[in-house]
Amino acid sequence: MADYFDLIASRESCRNFLERPVEKEKLIRCAEAARIAPSACDSQPWEFIVVNGGPLRGKVAECAQQFGLNKFTQKAPAFVAVVEKKAMLRNPAGMVADQKYAKFDLGLATMQFCLAATAQGLSTCILGSINRKKLKELPEIGEDVFVLIAVGYAADSPLRRKQRKGLDEILKFAE
Ligand SMILES: Cc1cc2nc3c(=O)[nH]c(=O)nc-3n(C[C@H](O)[C@H](O)[C@H](O)COP(=O)(O)O)c2cc1C
Fold first, then answer.
1. Alpha helix (H) ranges present in 64-151?
2. Distance from the CA of 21 to the CA of which of 30, 47, 90, 152 falls in 20 to 30 A?
3. What is the CA(94)–ligand 1 centre distance, in A?
4. What's the CA gap between 154 and 101, in Å, rounded?
């Protein structure tokens, strides 16, 4: 099993994909990893719509290129639409529809999906700058897409240095 710290260090956003197709079995394993993510009251307010090649791929890529951004998605061989579903939270009053934590839960599931992809030699890019209206209008999608995940094999292999805030800026031990 890959070391967790190596795994999280080797995940990075890929913006240059090979044309190599993605094996369906690998995508299923990614979805399996996302499926077991935690969520508020175990509500699991998510669905994953996989577009792996085929005629729909180009249409989804167009939806990912809002405002002329994300041009690299033209070459992404697969996309996963992470869909927000109604969150039913269990509380003392019974089941209550509450979307408060849904986006947080979707983020957790998306990360588990992406790390499972990395663990299988795939690369990903989470895409938030997308045309959600156009995506919903595609009959094969027809849902509220929270983010797309572009998935494929990276054309560039060396990892970039992570540009992040220092620990001293984000970590505080309080007593
Ligand atoms: C919610 C979310 C939305 C994002 N949307 C885009 C996007 O539309 N296009 C893009 O190229 N990268 C997008 N990214 C990737 C971030 O830019 C990237 O994760 C960040 O710069 C850190 O780089 P790294 O993923 O390579 O470590 C998104 C990431 C997240 C979490």
1. 102-119, 132-137
2. 47
3. 37
4. 33
What does each C-alpha distance from 31 to 37, 70, 71, 85, 124 come to in angstroms? 10, 24, 26, 16, 13
The pLDDT of residue 94: 87
Residue nearest to atom 29 of ligand 1 (CA): 126
Which residue, among 111, 131, 110, has the nearest Cα to 60 in the 3D structure?
131
Strand-pair partners of 81: 49, 148
Contact present, 124 and 114 (Cβ < 8 Å): yes
- Judged against a pLDDT cut of 60, whether residue 170 lies above it is answered with yes
Question: Tell me: the pLDDT tens digits for 61-78?
Answer: 999 998 899 999 999 999
How many residues are listed for the chain in this entry? 175
| Cα 5 from Cα 107, distance rounded (Å) | 19
Identify the residue whose C-alpha is closest to ligand 1 atom 10.
127
Q: For atom 9 of ligand 1, which residue has the closest CA? A: 127
Structure tokens at 64: 């990912």
**Gap from CA of 111 to ligand 1 centroid (Å):** 12
Tell me the CA–centroid distance for residue 65 and ligand 1, in Å: 14
> Is the beta carbon of 76 within 6 A of some atom in ligand 1?
no
Domains defined for the chain, CATH in brackets? 20-156 (3.40.109.10)
Tokens of 19: 């044309």
